[in-house]
Write a structure and sequence with these properties.
Elements lengths: L9 E6 L13 E6 L2 E5 L5 H6 L9 E3 L5 H4 L2 H10 L8 E5 L3 H9 L10 E5 L3 E4 L2 E7 L7 E7 L2 E5 L7 H6 L5 E5 L16 H11 L3 E5 L7 H9 L6 E2 L5 E3 L1
Parallel strand pairs: 3-4, 4-5, 5-6, 10-11, 11-12, 12-13
Antiparallel strand pairs: 1-2, 1-14, 2-3, 7-8, 8-9, 9-10
Length: 253
């Protein structure tokens, strides 16, 4: 593990509950920091409250939304409220990267009239590759009903891959090749009859990590009605060192 320090990449779990907020966690939201740059990966339902305990919202430099399901994007709405009415925002527009159509759909989430949110956000469509602050960004379309993109962030020789939501996906495995950390969803319990191209089981998350040859697997996005210990145990059948994330936990990549 790289020693913690100013130049390292740090991941903080803001919320990790799958499919919606749970009794002990907000829905998906992860803070990634490097050299003073702060990037939010998703901003799901309940996450804005938890975020404020970890970071001043005005210090967030960009937001990346893997997709536009509520448990990954709904708390864009209170972030807009904060920027417009708290009196604490610096007034700069916040880069927001998301699948096509986010500008219209997030405006409807905030306001039934669909008034533009361009006073708060500088919208951009998810790129295949880009530079975002200190990070080199690569993305891949996942196996999910809504358009969803996994993201790989590389900086200072370290790489973090976040799956977003996905079923088993060769594209996601390829994106994660030799990554230092794979932050992988594991929403499906181990049972027959599960819908395809929706979510990973714990075992499938472990298999993806093993196939990609990653150094570390962090299991996340477990719904409140699914046993997290069982998901972790299943992941460890394929990747013995798998870890289960918890709200507020930090990891040096």
């Amino acid at each position: 593990m790289r020693p913690a320090g100013e130049r390292g990449v740090r991941l903080t779990v803001v919320g990790c509950s799958g499919s919606g907020p749970g009794p002990t966690s907000a829905a998906s939201c992860y803070l990634v920091e490097h050299d003073g740059f702060r990037l939010l990966l998703d901003l799901g339902s309940g996450a804005f409250g938890a975020l404020q305990a970890l970071a001043d919202p005005d210090t967030i430099d960009a937001v990346y939304l893997s997709h536009l399901h509520a448990d990954h994007c709904l708390d864009v709405a209170p972030l807009v409220v904060w920027h417009r009415y708290s009196g604490r925002a610096s007034g700069h527009r916040l880069p927001l990267i998301a699948p096509a159509g986010a500008e219209r759909r997030l405006a409807l989430v905030y306001d039934s009239g669909g008034a533009p949110l361009t006073d708060v956000f500088d919208f951009a469509v998810t790129p295949v590759s880009a530079i975002l602050g200190p990070f080199t960004v690569q993305t891949a379309r996942t196996a999910h009903p809504a358009e969803c993109h996994a993201i790989r962030l590389t900086a200072h020789g370290s790489s973090l891959v976040y799956t977003g939501d996905t079923g088993p996906s060769r594209a996601v495995v390829d994106l994660a090749h030799r990554a230092d950390v794979l932050l992988a969803e594991a929403a499906h319990p181990e049972r027959d009859g599960l819908p395809p191209d929706l979510h990973l089981t714990g075992r499938q998350a472990g298999e993806a990590a093993a196939a990609a040859g990653v150094r570390r697997l962090l299991v996340t996005h477990v719904p409140p009605w699914v046993d997290p210990a069982a998901q972790l145990a299943a992941a460890r059948t394929a990747f013995p060192g798998a870890e289960l994330v918890h709200p507020g936990a930090t990891y040096d990549v």
